Amino acid sequence: MLNVEQKLEILESYPQLQRKNVSLGRVNFHYEDSAYEKKVVALHIHPNGNGYIYAGLLPNYETDAKGFVNIRDYSEADLRTLLDATIQAMSYNPEAVEVVEKAPIPQASVPLTLSSGGGVWINEEGQTLTLKYDNDMWCVFTGHDLEMAFESRSEAGEYLHEEGFKPQAQA
Question: Whole-prediction pTM value?
Fold first, then answer.
């Protein structure tokens, strides 16, 4: 059985995880690049060595109601295997990309002038969205929250125009 220092050292060896100190000396680790709303990978790593790792997306682990596995008696190899599998599973969400039917664009519409990069888009009400190329996808963000993701820049630009947004320089 690993002690708490050994567990924390293993968790901290994953650069994609961010440590979050919580109450009673416990520590959580978050995976901010998760393709799911779920960000917590390690929950309540306690000074007594107890703690939980999220395995809710993995088929071969017995989890609690929230999808966590107790790692109190895990070896280093078992812990690393679970962490690797959890991070890999949280990195890809096959249901995250929505398929949107495209309506034909009327001939009278204004031609879209799309820059080659992302940037800030604004509507008439002053609301802003950010377009950013990330992980081979064009992502539209509201603040830090992902709103939509597209395979091409033109699809993203078309969506933004349909929603009433223009590149900030054109607004």
Answer: 0.56
Give me the count of residues in the chain: 171
| Contact criterion met (CB below 8 Å) for 27 and 19 | yes
Largest CA distance in the chain: 70
The model's pLDDT over 66-96, given as tens digits with 9 standing for 90+, comes to: 999 999 999 999 999 999 999 999 998 777 6
| Helical residues (DSSP H) of 28-143, grouped into ranges | 76-90
pLDDT digits (tens, 9 = 90+) for 152-161: 888 888 888 8
Helix spans in the chain (H): 4-12, 76-90, 153-162
The dihedral over CA atoms of 163, 91, 17, 6, expressed in degrees to the nearest 10, equals 160
Q: Which residue has the tokens 């109190």?
A: 72
Could you give phi then psi for residue 112, rounded to 5 degrees?
-85, 130
Distance (Å, whole) CA 165 – CA 104: 19
Minimal CA–CA distance to 31: which of 64, 56, 5, 4? 56
